[in-house]
Amino acid sequence: MSSAANGGRARRSRGPHPPSAGASGQRAWFHKPSVVPGFGLTFGFAVTYLALVVLVPLGVLLLRATGVGWSGFVQTALDPRTLAALRLTFGASFAAATINAVFGVLLAWILVRYRFPGRRLLDAAIDLPFALPTAVAGLTLAALYSRNGWIGQLFAPLGIRIAYTPLGVGVALLFVSLPFMVRTVQPVIEEIDREVEEAAATLGATRLQTVVRVVLPSLVPAMLTGYALAFARAIGEYGSVIFVAGNQPYVSEIVPLLIVFRLEEFNYPAATAIATLMLLISFAMLLFVNLVQAWSRRRFGYGS
Amino acid sequence: MEISVRNVRKDFDRFPALHDVSLDIRSGELIALLGPSGSGKTTLLRLIAGLEFPSEGQIFFGAEDASARSVRERNVGFVFQHYALFRHMTVADNIGFGLTVRPKATRPSPKEVRRRVLELLDLVQLPGLENRFPRQLSGGQRQRVALARALAIEPAVLLLDEPFGALDAKVRKDLRRWLRDLHDQTGHTTVFVTHDQEEALELADRVVVMSQGRIEQVGTADDVYDRPASPFVFSFIGQSNVLPVEIRGGSALFGGTVLGAAAEPDGPRRMYVRPHDFDMLPEGEGGLAGRIVVARRTGGSRFCTVDLDGVPIEIELPHDGSAVRPGDRIAVRPRRWTLFDNA
Amino acid sequence: MAAETDTTAVADRGAAAPAARRPRPVTTETPLTRALLLAVGLAYLALFLFLPLAAVFTEALRDGLDGYLASILEPDTLAAIRMTLLVAALAVPCNVVFGIAAAWAVAKHEFRGRSLFVTLIDLPFSVSPVIAGLVYVLLFGSSGVLGAWLQSHGITVIFALPGIVLATIFVTFPFVARELIPLMQEQGTGDEEAAVSLGASGWQTFRRVTLPNVKWGLLYGVLLCNARAMGEFGAVAVVSGRIRGETNTMPLQVEILSNEFPLSAAFAVASLLALLALLTLALKTFLEWRYGDEMSSSQPGH
Are residues A99 and A49 in the same domain? Predict the structure, then answer.
């Protein structure tokens, strides 16, 4: 009796228009028939727009890069000035993302777990680097961390200059990549089951052991995601950095700025080659984030 | 380990969760805290564990006042309702966790931890699953891993919060029997919380019936079922009927009909009767006369709703082949009952 | 909190020795650790968030209110403000239309390659803004793929408004779509199916059933999209040519003024952008607080 009911249910088609053979069968392979109209129009428009605004221009870049040729590519990439810029960009991005990984988790923890006056305001303020135009951030950080700025003058007597040095690059990148770790880790901390921490305590773990061995490991997938997002943003950042970096070739010149210089010299092959290199690195980061999330979901049953 | 809860009161933000609760748990005993939600049973369990602290009163582990000891120092095995397994650790790492967080001096070697883990996995009948992650286990398996993890620290007392609450009915019954066997085998003092009376009566040596932050009765399954201490216990455990009766000259009367002898002072009472404690009387022998409203057959007996001139009662009659139908007139008399004062 | 209350309760009762080491709840740190973590976190935010914000306004008002107003009313600056508003007014609606169309296709329908499509929508977030500008130069610039054709038809894209709008569209591309997609997915297709079965057309279904359900989420996306559109620097810098009074936007004007004297002029323009950021944050927080349950759970923004 139950099998008959199931058979009946299975035979019943979804929606008022059962898929028929031929053309609509082909369509069904791509697009599952639905009562809700407008798929052709919206999908067609969205794909066309995506292609015209994003995919084709990026494709042109990659196409032009193949025109540069392998040797030209290697030559540009191994140019000492490019190498110096790459080293600085990656080094500063790595440092900024790492420091923000620590403070990001700390801030997310404070915002989720502690109750204190002004918490909501603080929570909202975390997004400031997203909302504040990079030029404003750069201009202000340069003023703050220059030798007679509010913060810079504290370091000047120690012989430490921050603005217009590689340190300035780091400061700017710290600012722009601050929210990523907080915002990826925060929802995961919110969802930590208090019972899990209690369980660790009943088993004799100290608070520190509970945090280090139970809480933090459960944040690792989110931290990896946040780290990759922060790192990717830092590598591509331009606006805020050029104000504080000083932009001296070989010393405080970042890769995006080098691209701009090459472009202004009408050296399109070099600009294209460097840009392609950066683009590939960005895609690798994107792939990494997706893989981490897929791995985490499969293994532990939660993503980030 | 004996546990003694003495005059414990617990308030959450001025809202009282427990009022002056005292309870003695004997060593090796299996005790159920039974009550509806909000009765304070989970709060009492968490107080014993040290996950909460009493607003007033003390909790003794053996002869020692444990009130000031943190949960870490109490050495309790706690099994959480949703198991609270560590999702990023394998089954083996979960079970071994309590041993590996011990101070260096008392921490067993990794090899010894491994040996104990495998031993416990055998005990909870999950051999070979040590390298799985919690996510890869069924609900019943997770439950047993949580139990093994709690047992790994050789707890003074084992505390279980709704241990079968998240499982489906079949698994629940199997695990219940298995837990009883395990308890008999290991002899841990065990306290578990449940809202399922069947579970409590079947599994526990003694049942603690709780309501609204107070203990209503502590006793064996027979005690709480046959000799309920309060109207709450009577109606919470098993089914019951309430008849407004009058005591006059040593007899209990319902609407002028004498139901039986009652050696109590005169006055109004409420009579609690179980559905199966009614006898059906042949016509003309008095008793309570009523009309059958609903009759349904369940297994070897027949449940009837009988209307006694406006007072509906549920009775359970042994099935003797005679058919009773809605609309039939019937006469019954309670065989056993408990009288409580009108509240 | 509870720990403190517990200790006082015990102290009141005058309990003996054990009360001194009254245990605290197990799922939080000691009050000392908490205070320490809080102090470190606040100090970090002060250093990197609050001080810069305070500095913008302090520096902008260094020459007094008159100097401030004079800096803003300077013709080139006014032109930059106009340009920024114009670019946002053109770029944001384009991305709104795209966002709605993409969300409709993804959330209300099932098709092959859906997750790839969603990934591609997010792509512009992982591309450096400089590269976003560069790709349009390579496409439309004088030596670009379409450069010669455009020139022969007298169309200028690069170093002109179209290029700036295109670059802005590129960098703000995902904002509306990534807000609407999860929201519309959560809501499912039940309402739309009901509307269609009652005889509503596709457009009627969208306007009268779907749109009211997602309006706050849409507003949220528009808000973030607009903030980025008005504040974008890198991509626009590459394609604008920075012609004063003509192709300069506010962020570019900030950079130009920052190389001149007095610096307070640069900060004056910057303060306007900072006010925009604060307004955006305030509205965003208000939307999250008031209509949070009508919006999808917020994702890390960009």
Answer: no
